[in-house]
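Is this the right way to post structure tokens for a design question? Let me know if I should format differently. Anyway, here goes:
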């Protein structure tokens, strides 16, 4: 047999052996991670970087001084909010304090009437998680500069989240990061689901008011938190990745509506509880 023929005869056997070896390796290799799974397991980062993050120290005034009319309102609202301790509204404030994902992704589930899921609605999940980081960062410079004491540090009364108090003591109260996040989400979700805009924006307001009921923020913290949330969203609209996720999230919401999907929460009960608010809150 010529060397050419011998080589041709050996080739199929080599290919067969190679395929068998590869099959053996694949049976023990780690399963391939999909793009969606990676977005869930990878630590999220904001869309905004560096100077693109709004500078709260440049944008908000100093917090109300002791003895001022502004601080008198802060104290009045705080008294009214603390009167709700032990009520269903206080329990809701505790639930609203949770921002860690995946639980945090569904804070507005009733408002949009869709459950947010990292696999079923990956773009919306990613949009909320990344914008949360940006809206929080937008409050950072003023928080660090003013280091305003939180209400529970002044009145020595309980909060709705005692597990957070140690960290909260070292984190300035003004402006409110939770409120900035909630208002940013309200504005973003109102674009994604304009048919639910009124419910979404009402949720944005009462999400911030939960911080009053929780005894961890003053009224003026909440007002400037809303302002910084809006500032963050304005910057986000100049970010290509944000706009891409915004478009994809709209399609996910539209698909959920078409499929007849709704929030799994008891939204009627939540809505009733959230109507309770400090009378003097703005």
């Amino acid at each position: 047999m010529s060397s050419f023929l011998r080589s041709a005869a050996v080739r199929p056997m080599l290919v067969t052996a190679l395929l068998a070896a590869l099959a053996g390796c694949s049976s023990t290799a780690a399963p391939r991670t999909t793009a969606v799974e990676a977005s869930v397991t990878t630590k999220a980062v904001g869309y905004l970087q560096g100077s693109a993050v709004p500078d709260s120290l440049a944008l908000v005034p100093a917090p109300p001084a002791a003895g001022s009319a502004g601080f008198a309102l802060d104290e009045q609202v705080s008294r009214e909010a603390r009167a709700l301790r032990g009520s269903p509204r206080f329990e809701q404030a505790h639930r609203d304090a949770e921002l860690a994902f995946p639980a945090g992704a569904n804070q507005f589930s009733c408002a949009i009437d869709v459950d947010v899921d990292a696999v079923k609605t990956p773009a919306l999940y990613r949009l909320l998680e990344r914008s949360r980081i940006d809206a929080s960062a937008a409050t950072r410079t003023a928080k660090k500069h003013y280091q305003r004491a939180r209400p529970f540090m002044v009145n020595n009364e309980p909060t709705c989240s005692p597990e957070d108090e140690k960290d909260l003591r070292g984190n300035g109260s003004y402006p409110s990061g939770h409120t900035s996040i909630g208002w940013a989400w309200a504005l973003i979700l109102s674009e994604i689901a304009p048919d639910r805009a009124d419910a979404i924006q009402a949720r944005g307001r009462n999400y911030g008011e939960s911080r009053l009921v929780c005894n961890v923020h003053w009224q003026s913290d909440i007002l400037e938190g809303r302002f910084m949330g809006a500032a963050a969203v304005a910057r986000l609209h100049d970010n290509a990745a944000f706009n891409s996720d915004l478009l994809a999230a709209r399609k996910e919401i539209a698909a959920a509506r078409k499929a007849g999907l709704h929030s799994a929460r008891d939204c009627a009960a939540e809505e009733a509880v959230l109507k309770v608010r400090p009378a003097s809150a703005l």
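Format looks fine. Someone answered above. Worth noting: The radius of gyration is 25 Å. Confidence is low (pLDDT under 50) at residues 1-42.
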